[in-house]
Specification:
Layout: E1 9-16, E2 19-26, E3 29-30, H1 32-35, E4 43-45, E5 48-50, H2 55-58, H3 60-63, E6 95-102, H4 110-121, E7 125-132, E8 135-143, H5 145-154, H6 156-175, E9 181-184, E10 192-195
Parallel strand pairs: 6-7
Antiparallel strand pairs: 1-2, 3-6, 4-5, 7-8, 9-10
Length: 196
């Protein structure tokens, strides 16, 4: 139903550090066998198919209700853009992240490098495919939910500092709600908060 599209984006909502987050993240795909019986299928409505949208999805506008959008009006939408409903709703537990590497890099800890992203996006499945001269013969599918949980437990100090940083940024913005700021970090030293 989305053939020819550039990407698939999902909205995730979760609590972290006593804050409610709304995160937009891409997905590489989903495990069809994991989704069987759990995906939400379109229903016929006269001559067209529509998807019943669960109440939790239909409240996206409520989630964004307090969001401030800078003045300047809406962005221009490319001419010819068509929006249509189709496909099925897929549970988050069925999503996977796909990484490809040369067979020469097989000993590298690719999963270890990806765990922070998997945690932030709550993706429980990881596919790592190694190729030799473009031919993929070593493809491993892994349920990494336990490893993501382990990563979270072992990084509690880092995650606490991240939550404190987000609270600090919110405090700065609440003191001067019309101020535009940017965060700058060059990989060394302190994170700088600058006037945009």
């Amino acid at each position: 139903d989305v053939r020819g599209s550039q990407c698939h984006e999902r909205l995730l909502r979760y609590n972290f550090g006593d804050l409610r987050f709304l995160l937009r993240a891409s997905a590489d795909g989903y495990m069809r066998n994991a989704a069987s019986g759990r995906a939400h299928h379109p229903v016929s409505n006269g001559d067209k198919e529509t998807s019943k949208i669960p109440e939790s999805i239909s409240t996206v506008t409520e989630w964004l209700g307090d969001t401030f959008i800078a003045p300047g009006g809406p962005t221009n939408v490319a001419a010819g853009l068509k929006v249509r409903n189709g496909g099925t709703l897929v549970e988050q537990s069925c999503l996977f992240e796909l990484k490809t590497r040369s067979l020469r890099k097989k000993e590298e800890d690719t999963l270890g490098e990806e765990l922070p992203r998997l945690w932030a996006r709550q993706v429980p499945n990881f596919i790592l495919a190694h190729h030799e001269k473009g031919l993929f013969e070593d493809i491993k599918e892994n349920d990494v939910s336990a490893k993501v949980n382990e990563w979270e437990k072992s990084h509690q100090d880092d995650l606490s500092r991240l939550a404190a940083l987000v609270h600090h940024i919110i405090d700065i913005l609440r003191k001067e709600p019309h101020r535009k700021i940017e965060l700058c970090y060059d990989g060394e030293g302190n994170l700088e908060v600058r006037e945009a």
